[in-house]
């Protein structure tokens, strides 16, 4: 998906609250991709809140990386509040484990 498509979706949904979901036990690739996308969304829509979630937490290596990045990963993101939900580095909804039913 291109950023133009993402921007169009954010505009069409008048997104004020965006949830980015990574797969369970999110690895550094997932976490850093979500961080980059979150930064782009915040730059495009400064008034939007962007929450990053990972089912059942993140990997041990990702925890070390988070010490250097100004982000928080939620294990129970506020999916009900989301205007837009995006899956990051996730192939199937089943990789979201306990969050799959809410999505």
Distance between the amino and carboxyl termini: 19 Å
Number of helices: 3
Give the strand content.
15-25%
Largest sheet: 4 strands, parallel
Number of strands: 4
How helical, in percent, are the residues? Answer: 25-40%
- Unreliable segments of 5+ consecutive residues: none
Decide which structural class fits the backbone. Answer: alpha/beta
- The overall average pLDDT, rounded, is 91
Q: How many individual domains?
A: 1
Sequence of secondary-structure elements: HEHEHEE
Shape, per Cα inertia axes: globular
Strand order of the largest sheet: 3-2-1-4
Cα gyration radius (Å): 13 Å
What is the compact description of this entry?
The chain has helices at 3-12, 28-44, 60-66, and strands at residues 17-22, 49-54, 73-74, 84-88.
What does this structure look like?
By secondary structure, the chain is an alpha/beta fold. It has one domain. 33% of the residues lie in helices and 18% in strands. The chain contains 3 helices and 4 strands. The protein has helices at residues 3-12, 28-44, 60-66, and strands spanning 17-22, 49-54, 73-74, 84-88. It has a 4-stranded parallel beta sheet, with helices on one face. Strand 1, helix 2 and strand 2 form a beta-alpha-beta unit. The radius of gyration is 13 Å and the shape is globular. It starts with a helix and ends in a 15-residue tail after the last strand.
């Amino acid at each position: 998906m291109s950023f133009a498509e993402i921007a169009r979706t954010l505009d069409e949904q008048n997104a004020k609250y965006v949830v980015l979901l990574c797969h369970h036990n999110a690895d550094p690739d997932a976490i850093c991709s979500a961080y980059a996308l979150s930064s782009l969304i915040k730059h495009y829509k400064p008034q939007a809140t962007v929450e990053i979630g990972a089912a059942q937490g993140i990997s041990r290596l990702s925890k070390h990386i988070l010490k250097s990045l100004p982000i928080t990963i939620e294990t129970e993101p506020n999916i009900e509040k989301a205007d837009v939900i995006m899956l990051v580095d996730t192939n199937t909804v089943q990789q979201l484990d306990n969050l799959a039913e809410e999505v």
